[in-house]
Specification:
mainly alpha; disordered N terminus
Length: 168
Amino acid sequence: MSIGERSIAEGGTLYTPAERKRRDETVWTLVQGVLAPLQFFVFGVSLILVLRYLATGEGYAIATGSIFVKTLFLYAIMVTGAIWEKVVFGRYLFAPAFFWEDIFSMLVLALHTLYLIVTLFALTSPEMQMWIALAAYAAYVINAGQFLYKLRQARLEQPRFSEAGGVA
């Protein structure tokens, strides 16, 4: 079995019954469920502000502030997500069920952190800073899609557990 193929090797499920039980019982699932849509909302507002700045040259400060807020949300969801993964799977990151999502999350973190560094130390022009933010946002959208796909997988497999007499 290669990394990230656990679900195929273990009967096509994302979670074992014990993992599903831990997932359903931990407060960190609720934390992730609250932070994810909040982060997406902040992302949407920030994206509009960044695009407005690139189109008009106006609103640098508010666009920059919005990117900082978005990045804080990202760091918060990454830290709490690592805690969630530890509770559910027994490791902070790179559990087989979420291996590729975690790998891509590292790219998302790296791009957001690059943005913070180049902005805080004025290493590039404001326009380049915004383009770095857009690259970070594009990676974030892909990563969010990965997690939404896993959420859908988990919901689709839930009846299978119920029919088999397992944890629903």
